[in-house]
Amino acid sequence: MKKIFFSALIAFLFVFNAQAQETSSSSQDYSKWQARFRVITVIPSPGDNIDGADVDISTSVVPELDFTYFFTKNIAAELILGTTKHNVDVEDVDLGHVWLLPPTLNLQYHFYAGDFKPYVGAGVNYTIFYGVDEGDVADMDYENSFGFSFQAGVDYNLNDKWFLNLDLKQLLLSTDVDVNTGAAVLPVEVDINPFIVGVGVGRKF
Q: How many CB atoms lie under 10 A from the CB of residue 170?
């Protein structure tokens, strides 16, 4: 599903690229700052992490806030702020839940095509793990970690100040986890790699 979303959005970028370049060169008027409020769905893709066992990390739906600063009409930097809670299971073992705080900074390139403003971006995130519940084991210790972010999206202008937003992100993220079973401590590298779909509203300043 995420491949379909990204393919459709990239196709959209190419279709409007010629018009975007013409519009961009015809005017240098733009807002330096904008902010968005989104509702996002965070879909982890953990895969096999523990001796071939399937790790299940739950999907989460949460609010998100971001701020974007434009260096030029086309080039901008976006800081994304949000936090999510995920339940973790391995086979029939409940590993409780953990909260993730992954502030993400992306460098973006924006196109212009009438009221549509598609963009692509890439950057880094630093994920902080907190609020751990151990579930059926004695203890769970998650290590904070850096990851990479890839992004594509589109804004649609409602007027000079307000706009709607669709945003897709893929975070390449893993963490080292010490699982204390009570009998031994098992070090495990857990892939999270969440795909994030967001819709929301924004304002230019």
A: 18
